[in-house]
Hints:
- It contains eight helices and eight strands, in the order H-E-E-E-H-H-H-H-E-E-H-H-E-E-E-H.
- The chain has a single domain (8-268), classed as Creatinase/methionine aminopeptidase superfamily (Creatine Amidinohydrolase), CATH 3.90.230.
- It is of the alpha+beta class and 275 residues long.
Amino acid sequence: KTRVGGTEAELAGIVEGIALSGGNGVSFPVILSQHGETLHNHNHHLTLEEGRLLLIDMGAENGMNYCSDNTRTIPVSGKFTPKQAAIYQIVYDANMAGIAACKPGIYFRDVHEIAVTIITKGLQELGLMKGDVAESVKAGAHALFMPHGLGHQMGLDVHDMEDFGEDNVGYDETISRSPIFGWGSLRMAKELRPGHVVTVEPGIYFVPHLIEIWKRENKFSQFLNYDKIDEYVGFGGIRVEDDVLITETGHRVLGKPIPKSIAEVEAIVGSEPLT
C-alpha cells in the first residue's frame, strides 16, 4: 500500500491495526520513517516522496505475549535507484551472513564482526571507505555508518530482560563491553546458546551531524573518504532485521518469510490496492 503522495501516518496505522487484529498489538512503538538515519524515530508526519527510502521497524506480540521485531527498508517509488540498490545489497549481504553465522558456541560479538566486516568491504568497493579492512573494523571506523550493535535478545520483552541492565544480560564473566564507539553499543555480545532468540539487524546510515563532526575532526581519515561520503548526505538509512532462534545444531529464522532481496522488495511495493 506504499504510494508516492501517501503518508507515513497512514502506513503506521495499517501496521498497528494488523498487529492488534492478530494478537496483542505492537511489541514497541512503530518506527516508520523516510528519515531512516534517525534510529528509533517514532515520528510519522511526512508525506511519501518519490525517490525516498522508507524504513519500517515493527513487531507484534502474540497471545502469549512473546514479541517479534523485524525491519525492512523499501523504495517509496517501487524501484531502488542504483545508489540505493548498492547500499541495500551490502546490508542484505551482512544480514544473511550474520544469520548464517548464528549457532551455539559462537559469541554474538563475533557475529557482529562478521557483519560489519562485510559492510566495510562493501563500502570500500563503493569508494566510501579505504585502508586495511581488519584494522578499520578493529578501530571502529565502520561505526560512522552503523553505530549500533548487530542485535539483541528477544522474548517476553522486545529487548529481553534489559531492565536488569544490558551488561547483566548481554555480557557475562567471559566478555565485557568495549570502550570503542560502535563496539561499545552492542546490547548482546556473549556466547549464543540453544534457546536464545536474537535479532540480526545490520544497517547503513548517513547521519549528517555525525558525518559533519567526524569530518571536522578528520577522524579515521586513513579509513574514510569524506569527499565521497559527502555525496551520500541526505540518503537516509537502510536496515534489514530478522528474528533468529538458536537451535541445538544451528539456527532457525522465526516467522513466515518477509520479502527481503531487492527483487522481492521491488515486486511487492505498491502491489496492493489502497482500499
